[in-house]
Design brief:
The complex is a heterodimer of chains A (311) and B (290).
Chain A: E1 3-9, H1 16-25, E2 34-40, E3 47-53, H2 59-62, H3 66-84, E4 87-93, E5 98-104, H4 109-116, E6 123-128, E7 131-137, H5 140-146, E8 156-162, E9 177-178, E10 186-193, H6 196-205, H7 215-228, H8 233-243, E11 246-253, E12 257-262, E13 271-274, E14 278-282, H9 285-289, E15 306-310
Antiparallel strand pairs in A: 1-8, 1-14, 2-7, 2-8, 3-5, 3-6, 4-5, 9-10, 10-11, 11-12, 12-15, 13-14
Chain B: H1 11-18, E1 22-23, E2 33-34, E3 55-63, H2 69-81, E4 84-90, E5 107-111, E6 123-129, E7 143-148, E8 164-167, E9 180-186, E10 200-205, E11 221-224, E12 235-238, H3 242-255, E13 267-271, H4 283-289
Parallel strand pairs in B: 3-4, 4-5, 5-6, 6-7, 7-8, 8-9, 9-10, 10-11
Antiparallel strand pairs in B: 1-2, 11-13, 12-13
Classes of the chains: A alpha+beta (311), B alpha/beta (290).
Chain lengths: 311, 290
């Protein structure tokens, strides 16, 4: 089933980590397998945040030597960053297997991500100047607490609670997906994509990489490909309705925008609240009520509807 | 060759049989299912003959702020059991499955919005909702009236059999899918596949409709004042009669809903009946007959 949610404030930064946690907690019944957040803070000139994982959570229980391996992998990451000319400003260990790097880097993002992912067990979850992408197994409150999202301030964010249907229960298959290799772009999705393998092969022929077998990852790669061709976010969302088969509602966030698209059958839900200062959307209205606890006017976007909001 | 023997009935089958339900041998393409209501069963509101005796002047309130849906529904039942005929639900908070399975006369007032599956399987109550409703509102409604002041989600009035279901705002996709009776009134626009596989009843749309309006409808009537993005398979335009207009006039006046262009702006859609195959035998039946 899965639950998706997003919000964008038009009047400056707020406690967006806490708000997204509240929204996703109220959607827990739509899927408790994993939870993910892509939240957007304030960017610092010439600085980037890279989130990466060096193992799966389940590896901790299965492999007695995994902690040593993670230390070795991290050393390789540090070495690689130095070789690529990236200056590490700060490193934080969010969990034993997930890390947050603050970097100064002027090179090619794709190259950096590609080189790091050559290291065994490494996956770059996100890269950007404002984006912080966090995903892990468990429900929203657990993941939020684990990664200390409660105090995170920002302008917008998207999130996902997953009920695994098409692929495994692991971090690799959890949402959001970063639109590799584009800075600050993330995607969450509710639905099933039926031409996944056809589209995946098409994207792979164009040189894009896939890290999972989750159909939702296709939307991130597809969005990245469109943006690479010069499309706007709205163009990409509109094109997806024709190009992607299946039932889907998905939400994309960029450094300054929040967008959504719904398939031709309108088979997956989305409730939308718009005010002068806030736009909030979610699979169910209860998620919006979690941050706007008063009587509000909401609506359901229709089939093939595409919307984009700026912060 | 081993003899074909029927396995012992499941618990579900045994209970069904004890309740008087059984399936007759298929004759042609019809299947009759009988159901005997046990009039001696305790008054738990299961069937209308044993409904709670309520007084409409006796008014109760439920503050749903910190209550899960199950407890809200149990509280509604308790109040009806105690004779309350008018119940006000405050702070419903768009929770799911509120006020489902009410098989009783009741004035129910919802001060706020409902989530998914609200008012499903109801038979009898008159309901007013000041907010909006989520997906699948009033699914399988049998009788009564529901008036929603704001918008509604998809599958609005799916498979309703009777009663009046009115939304003054916009509704989502697949409105009235599989409806088998009753009336659905939409004050604004409605989404794609509205009236999909509609079998009976009437639908009134004061605004526009999404694509495939009335797709594969067997029967029933759709009135629309705006424009559909497209008609579905086997949905065809039909001539409006004076009777249609008189019925619309009376029905819409009751709920204070009128399209911008007035009653004269309505057009009528019915089933073309080109998809009907009721007189064609299934291949297996042909073998038996021929």
């Amino acid at each position: 089933m899965c639950g998706i949610a997003g919000l964008i404030h038009r009047d400056g930064a707020t406690a967006v980590g806490k708000e997204m946690t509240a929204m996703l907690s109220s959607l827990r019944h739509r899927g408790p397998d994993s939870t993910g957040f892509a939240i957007y803070g304030t960017s610092t000139p010439n600085e980037y945040v890279m989130r990466l994982k060096l193992a799966e959570q389940e590896d901790l229980a299965k492999d007695h030597h995994i902690r040593q391996k993670i230390r070795e992998r991290q050393a390789e990451v540090d070495k690689m960053l130095a070789e690529l000319g990236a200056e590490t400003v700060e490193v934080a260990e969010a969990t034993p297997y997930a890390f947050r790097y603050r970097l100064r880097y002027a090179g090619d993002t794709r190259r950096l991500a590609t080189e790091i992912e050559q290291i065994e067990g490494a996956e770059v979850l996100s890269f950007g100047s404002a984006l912080e992408l966090i995903k892990d197994l468990g429900d929203a409150s657990r993941v939020s607490e684990q990664y200390g999202l409660g105090g995170f301030r920002g302008t917008h964010g998207i999130g996902h609670t997953r009920m695994a249907t098409e692929s495994d229960v692991d971090i690799r298959s959890a949402h959001p997906y970063w639109a590799y290799p584009y800075n600050d772009i993330a995607v969450v999705h509710n639905g099933q994509i039926t031409n996944y393998w056809i589209m995946r092969r098409e994207m792979e022929r164009l040189g894009h990489r896939f890290m999972s077998n989750c159909d939702s990852e296709l939307l991130a790669v597809y969005t990245a490909n469109n943006l690479e061709q010069g499309a706007t976010l709205e163009d990409s969302l509109r094109a997806s309705i024709k190009d992607i088969d299946g039932v889907f509602t998905y939400v994309v966030a960029t450094e300054n925008e929040l967008g959504m698209a719904k398939d031709t059958m309108a088979a997956k839900p989305m409730v939308l609240f718009e005010s002068d200062n806030l736009v909030a959307l979610a699979s169910e209205e209860v998620a919006i009520r979690a941050i706007v606890p008063r009587e509000i006017d909401t609506s359901d976007p229709y089939d093939e509807e595409v919307r984009v909001w700026q912060r | 060759m081993a003899a074909l023997t029927r396995s012992a009935p499941s618990e579900q089958e045994r209970m069904s049989h004890e309740m008087g339900m059984h399936t007759e041998k298929l004759g042609g393409r019809s299947r009759q299912v009988f159901f005997d209501i046990d009039l001696n069963e305790p008054a738990n509101g299961f069937a209308l003959p044993n409904a709670y005796d309520v007084d409409f002047n006796k008014r109760g309130e439920i503050d749903a702020s910190n209550m899960p849906s199950k407890n809200i529904n149990l509280r509604i039942r308790e109040l009806m059991q105690d004779g309350f005929g008018t119940i006000l639900i405050r702070n419903p908070g768009a929770k799911h499955s509120i006020a489902v399975g009410i098989l009783n006369r009741l004035n129910l007032i919802v001060d706020g919005s409902l989530g998914y599956f609200g008012l499903g399987l109801i038979d009898g109550p008159n309901v007013r909702i000041s907010g909006r409703v989520g997906w699948s509102c009033a699914e399988n409604m049998m009788s009564g009236t529901i008036l929603i002041e704001k918008n509604a989600g998809s599958q609005f009035g799916a498979a309703i059999r009777g009663g009046d279901l009115v939304c003054k705002g916009d509704v989502g996709s697949r409105t009235g899918i599989d409806m088998k009776g009753g009336t659905i009134v939409v004050g604004g626009n409605t989404g794609a596949f509205t009236g999909f596989m509609m079998q009976r009843g009437r639908m009134v749309i004061c605004g526009n409709a999404g694509k495939n309006l009335g797709d594969s409808m067997y029967d029933g009537t759709i009135y629309i004042a705006g424009e559909p993005a497209s008609l579905g398979v086997d949905a065809v335009w039909a001539a409006m009669t004076d009777l249609d207009k008189a019925w619309l006039e009376r029905k819409l006046r009751r709920y204070d809903v009128t399209p911008k262009g007035g009653i004269d702006s309505f057009r009528k859609i019915v089933a073309g009946k080109q998809l009907w195959n009721y007189d064609n035998l299934e291949p297996t039946e042909k073998k038996l007959v021929l």
